[in-house]
Amino acid sequence: MKNDALNRTKLNSLSKDAVILLLLQLSENFQLLSEQNSVIQKQNEQLIRQNESLKEQLAILTTHRFGRKTEASAQIPGQLSLDFGDQDILNEVEVIVEEGMPEEPVIEEVIVRKKRAKGKRAANLDAVEVESICHECTTEELTKRFPKGWHELPDEIYKELLYTPAKFKVLEHHVKVYAGDSDKGGILRAQSPSRLLSHSILTPELAASVFNAKYVNAMPLNRLSEEFLRSDVNIPRQDMAGWMIRLTDYYLNPVHKMMKAEILRSHHVHCDETPFIMPEHSKEYMWVFHSPGGRGSHPVFLYEYMGGRNGAVLEKYLKGYRGILITDGYQPYHTLMRKDGEIKVAGCWAHCRRRYAEILKTARKGQALTPVQAIAAEAIRMIDMIYHKDNHFKESSIEKRLTNRQQTVAPLVDDYFAWVKQTRNKICGSQKLTEALNYSFNQEQYLRVFLQDGLIPLDNNDAERSIRSFCVGKHSWHIIDSVRGASASALLYSIAESAKANQLKPYEYFVYLLKELLKYPRENVPEEELKKLMPWSEAIPDSCRKNKTR
């Protein structure tokens, strides 16, 4: 109380001007504090948003690293992420947030799981050579058991599957050499089979084994070398790599060129690219082009190493193509469309969905969705409905599918983009959601292309699946040593994937291909004969074909 009295006393002793000055100073201080408080409050709000964004990113990265590696969707069969090396395939978000999802209309399953057929084991062995082994009793055994005679009943039959690991055999060729008894005539050597590579132990069968191990099964050559060594055969990794490069240089380039010609006459082509490491050039890119076949063309997977990822490289490679490219949102494809005028670009709906699915990775089962997650869930519901309606006519004629798209699917697409534009104008505070909405907004022109053509799929999953072998492989062998190695790998992956796409056995087909190419001068195979060797040719022998589709 004493201090208060003193303060009142002091204040009472001040002049009127001093009191006014004091009040003005206090007012300025109060205003300054208010401004500082407002700034701090804004900074705090910004920090909260940044914290939420970081938590969102951390949850996504944690799920990428430790979560389930699946994104199976009944409405989007085969949807995959491009980073196949880590099998970075999105989790099925509807399952993750099952309890927290808002109610939505029940969508009929488009994909029906087949029941296990009776006799499935026997059916799995239909294509395997059978050796019959008879087990019977001796006459002495039978007479002792049945002294009054016997007769045979139907055999009891059971099957076992015998597997013999790979075996090596050295083929030692003794080529007879003759000389005349006189000085005339010179030296005559007996005929012997042509060799794949001069002064090399390589045979078509050995070459196909290396090809199948690395380019089909993604086994690094050093590991294959170790496997050979366990069979007492020492073939260094460098030798096998050299064989593959020389085979492409000597024999296989014409095959690759004819595959490209098939791609360039296709109605639509799936395109994608993925990075890899090359010591000489740091980060490089492998491209893949895929034609699913139809309208007179055949299934082809074409890998290409083009020494870059820019639009000029793409423009040069696709010069002369007059069709539709199905791609993600990579800008050079769109630039090429505007420059060329004859090329159309169709967008990928799976990429749209995937961006929303990543947001829902942060949701926890049993907990209510945040406003951002609820928006992402609504986007996924709308996109799934588009897939659902389109899949109903997947097996119908092109005309019926186009009619369905224009009458049934188009209104759903219109609703989705109207929703995107409306939602995009709201402040959401999530960087991931903003990016997802902007992606759809910017890609609308390309995402609508499928509505104009019954042959165009909704997504680019075919290309992403096709590049999977390379992506899985690159995480095993990490780098490609040279430009020649990159070009050879592109060619060999093309043959491997195209063989599989045409229901061929890669090993058997590669053996057959090399043996046939040996009959002609290097890179001088007549065009008509080369056509007979392509993976889609009806002239390919049955021994190279899968007997059935599993």
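(ticket continues) Second input and output from the same batch:
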Amino acid sequence: MLKSQKLREMAPELDPLRLGTGWKLEDLSKPQIIIESTFGDSHPGSGHLLELVEEARKGIDEAGGYGARYFTTDICDGEAQGHDGINYSLASRDMIANMIEIHANATPFDGGVFIASCDKGMPAHLMGLGRVNIPSIVVTGGVMDAGPDLLTLEQIGMYSAQYERGEISKEKFEFYKHHACPSCGACSFMGTASTMQIMAEALGLTLPGSALLPATSKDLREFAYRAGKQAVWLAKHDLKPRDIVTMKSFENAIMVHAAISGSTNSLLHLPAIAKEFGIEIDSDTFDRLHRGAHYLLDIRPAGRWPAQFFYYAGGVPMIMEQIKSMLHLDVMTVTGKTLGENLEELKQTGYYEKCFKNLEKYGIQREDVIRSFDNAFGTDGSIAILKGNLAPEGAVVKHTVVPKEMFEATLIARPFDCEEDAIAAVLSHKIQPGDAVFIRYEGPQGSGMPEMFYTTEAIASDEKLGASIALITDGRFSGASKGPAIGHVSPEAAQGGPIALVEEGDLIEINIPQRILRICGIHGQKMSEEDIQKVLEERRKHLKPFVSKYQDGVLKIFSEHAVSAMKGGYMK
């Protein structure tokens, strides 16, 4: 007997309450499927999701079930930039997951369809479905179209810095702002939203080939409809997420992450998702698997093309075909088949031929977007975990977007205790080549772990600084960030980590090949490791205890319970 039918017998109020909500009498005995989405007028990534909800609902009905709509609207990092709103971003992930738990456990359902697009909504839904563990399938909300001349939103930060420096006119800047988001969907670059849609498919929780479709396409709506039907199948067969997702599934996802040069924010999200499945992964897991991994994708911000071209080139299945030798093909998926079986089936159904027709319009080939395994851009993955006396627990860098000049460097520390002061120094040319700009007290327990987006864009858009300085922070970066940016430094400053002890003029060694991030000198003078530790111990005696400016509300709760960024930054 289905769970919903057992609970109907236990709770006689269920039937009248659902009839009062608009259910028909015959619906009560059907498989009951929760349709959870981030639909809302909050941003383009969620504004269109009601269409997908209704398509999923049609599929559920067609398969003999009943779909009930629930909503956990997410916020947009882009709209939250430049003010304290960005501090709520990471916390919102955990709060959405909490609401999904409440929705699914307080009301009986036999299965679920989870629909999201963006960088917190998607990982939150993956966390939530792992936590409630009812038969479930994910629908990704797709990616927006590029604007004129393939303009995409991640370029706006660069154009903003150029405007602030007087390099482009106000009219040109206004044109870019007014045409960067021509449709609904996630931002059209390989940021966190696009990365996490891909991760959902790589984990085996979506229909094959459905991640990162153009949000305006009929195909995406067809996938939502099919997902609704599959949710009923999953409910009838009692195939739950934890029956599907294993450590092998996460290893597959990390290998795909390496192949696409995915967002560094995945190092926050995948460990948090894994925790909800009873699986432990950490930053060292990423570093180990990225070593020797082949990086194949020519999509912005690291590459040339907008994110919609990812699907045109064959999407996640094509990536997996290229790195097949590095994947566990025997893992289960929501189709009820293994990953290997899904990939073979796609070859027989004309999936790739349909995708490639879109490339013909632009006169390019699949290999212009997704390279073959033997023609990779690189063979050392896309991220590295750096450690040393500055980051004993680690720090993350996306080395595929770092200038080669900065792979090994000794820089002069320029510490700031907030992003506003740091970006002002960059834009006013107070930062010079050879500097290491520190932004601290921005970790999970400091201010909620906001993005340092504007500062990274200001640095990367300055040809002189982009190849000669580094940005080092206990905060995080936008998935669109590029340039010499090192984040998630742990322990964070709010916990008294070594980053809090750095002073003006200290020497900072960065060595990406050797995975090193350390203080190698004090006030311009190189010193031994032992002597540096003595200086840091003396400085610690005078370090004032951190006092959060958030003394109530969500951010107080989050900061008090968040674990280290290198463990996923989730609330324990």
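Agent notes: The CA atoms of residues 383 and 398 lie 4 Å apart. The chain has three domains: 31-145+183-374, 147-182, 383-567. Closing as not reproducible unless the customer responds.
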